Amino acid sequence: MPARTMSLTEELVARCYRLVEDSGPDPDAQHLSDSDYEIMLDAFEAELPATEPLWLLGYGSLIWKPEIEHVEERVAMARGWHRSFCMKMTRWRGTKQSPGLMMALDRGGQCKGVAFRLNGGERRQALDKLFRREMTLKPTSYHPRLLQLATDKGPLRALAFVINRKGTTYAGPLSEEEVVERLATSCGHWGSGADYLYNTVKNLEARGIHDAHLWRLQQLVAERIAGS
Prior knowledge:
It is a single chain. By secondary structure, this protein is of the alpha+beta class. It is built from 7 helices and 9 strands; from the N terminus they run αβαβαββαβββαββαα. The protein has a 5-stranded antiparallel beta sheet with strand order 2-4-3-6-7, with helices on both faces. α2 crosses α4 (123-134) and α6 packs across α7 (212-226). The two termini are 33 Å apart.
């Protein structure tokens, strides 16, 4: 099958970029402490025997920016979860004046992503790095969960970061129109929402993963940018 051509192009994404100064950590927010991370790490390691490989499920930016050493990757399916633009971003890819959105796994449906197998050494340090990357505020935006995944080489369990609906950045259910508007107009010091969507869809397609919902979103975001 010939490769699909995305409507959202690098040229359209470039229109969304603007120089944004990092506002820094929110002084009004509660941040996780070292002891908070230790407690979460202890709880997670208790669920995953040391003899079991550590896999990580990437479903968004982790696919194209894993920032972890890994020795294998597999296309994997998580049933009972779906990608959702349900995280409000007032930093990184948005601002307090113009909040952006990022994806998380939310309940229902299914999600095909990429499972990365981390090397066997220094597992605690790898987990600590991942936890600190994905979770910073109290209550946390994510819950670290072990999910059962299906792959062509058999089932496996992997760490995934799923949305905490009681977390500080949960945006709640949003209409498609609102998601498109935010992705087409938001930008932070890490880049724009359109850039995040573009890279996610591009890297999913490169691995033969076609997410119909994200494909529709990239078409609508492209139309919104082109019409502005």
